[in-house]
Batch of 3 targets.
Target 1
Amino acid sequence: MRIHYNRKVYIVAPMITRGGVTTWINKVMQALRIENISYNVSLINNSSLLGLHLEDLLRSIQQCNSLVIYFGSIPSIGHLIDKMKGARIVTFVSGHPVYELLSVIKDNRYSLRTRIGASALLSHLKAFSRIHTVDMWVCHTLTACEEINVDRFVLLKQFVLPSEIETFSKLREKYDEDSKYNRENQTVTIFSYMSYADLPSLNIKHLRKIFNDIRKRVVNKSVRFIVEDPHIKEPIKLDIGFEVIGRMSRHEFYRTLASSDLFIEITLDEELRLTSLDAGLLGIPISKITVNYFRDRRDFDESIIIDSPNIKRFIDDILEYIKNIDYYKPEYSKKVREFIITKRSWNAVKHPFINIIKSYIKG
């Protein structure tokens, strides 16, 4: 017997989002539908801080809900009204909001208005985390929740939906010819994706150094680095074989990813972003640096991805992979895909989060 949770659930999401945040919001909403949890959605215009709060305040006055779920890392002021009405408040944390907001505040390239807005958002985040008006914060990683200094949180790791597993299986077959062409031409293609967000991670300068060190030491093969940076509009060739390109269409992104021999995840903590999960489902081996402080927090190890504690070791590990690519690529390809399907599917990661959500709806 399937239980339908029909009590009033309201999702509040920012109207203007980019990249992974947009994908994540849509993915969580699909996952809630899989769990037979119905909801209403309010897209709040976040082009101005004042407008954001006023819109949500009006929403909270007009609506009466048992559960309000916020996306965007910071609940707006309407949640205080919801709380007084007896609603439970859940807030999703995306990226590293404290790090990102501090970066904006300190960067003179941003306008004074933007920096003041970032300062106000940071103050709101710190205030709401201290007064405990949020019943539960939802984070991808322990590191993200530690950063905002909250004690009431649940981890919901980046995950893939059942429909995505099926879709990516078809994409693997579709793009297989491109990877065969690269193997025949002895070209090793390494792909990486930057981020709209300002994360504590590898940047273009780091990747360029890694590429140049690898190219100097590789024997009998050519190496090609492709980096997608959604901030730029025109491709940039920084070195022979090293190209930075702007935002690609979904088709171009998947084709480039599927024809690659290795994907570099730029985060330095224990997180694997959605682009890494895309790569893994396509059977593309993943490499990253996880610095020592975060290594005990991983749910993966070096048998699943190439995971190094520092740049020097990272370069050596990639060189070893390239040298014996005919052995390592199919091994890592198989293991990373199995890891994502068994450990990062919705059914594998959902229970701590969904149990809390259902308890809030029933209560």
Target 2
Amino acid sequence: MSKLPEGRKPIPQEWFVDRATKITPMTNEERQRAKEKAEANSTPYSENKCVSCGNVAATDFCEFCLREE
């Protein structure tokens, strides 16, 4: 265990237990929003192609080509 900075006290175990009791199940609205967010994040960038190698890219160049320059 690492040493705490001067003036800091360790968090008591009760703190974690208190926080765990406040966790609630997701509401239907939160669940729907999570699905929408996952779908939006799972789709690749738009259909842009890298002008250098032809791979999928967010802009004119893909991340690989940008790192290689």
Target 3
Amino acid sequence: MSGGQIAALIIAILLLLPGGCFLISGIAFATDAQFWDASLILLPIAAAIFALAGLLFWLAFRRRPPRDGALDVPPP
């Protein structure tokens, strides 16, 4: 794993906390008739944070293509 992949993994893990808080708050406000409008703001914010975290997880765990000189095949 490269340094950039480790940084992406750490940031993605850290983004799960605010995304979860926005999601729980949005669901809680959606069940209350007085604050229903607030859920229309909180839920898309939670979705955007989770989408960013998903992108960072994908960047952290994707495999890089091998370079031309670094093939795992032994020479003949």
